[in-house]
Write a structure and sequence with these properties.
With about 100 residues, this protein is of the alpha+beta class. It contains 2 helices and 5 strands, in the order ααβββββ. The protein is about 20% helix and about 40% strand.
Length: about 100
């Protein structure tokens, strides 16, 4: 419910869930996350926000960064949805089966 049409037009909800399951299986569950200091960026008329997080997973040797972009719903100003999550939910494309 938090994904913007920018994502859902390219990926079904089931495909997104499967991507998350594959990343958890290959890289382990997320064990910690922190926002990168001073990573918040306001774009446009303040209706787009970007944040970078450092993510640690159980099976990865080192943390990686995840870049999230949020888009404000023009019809519901208090509603924000994820419009981008960078290259993926894990440190790389999962290769394990």
């Amino acid at each position: 419910n938090d994904l913007d049409p920018t994502i859902t037009l390219q990926l079904t909800l089931d495909q997104f869930k499967q991507q998350a399951v594959n990343n958890d299986r290959c890289f382990g569950p997320v064990t910690n996350y922190t926002e990168v200091a001073d990573s918040a960026v306001v774009q446009g008329n303040g209706n787009t926000l970007s944040y970078t997080y450092t993510i640690t997973r159980k099976k990865t040797a080192k943390p990686y960064q995840l870049h999230l972009t949020l888009q404000q719903n023009p019809d519901k100003p208090g509603e924000w949805k994820v419009s981008s999550y960078g290259a993926g939910l894990g440190p790389a494309q999962p290769t394990c089966k």
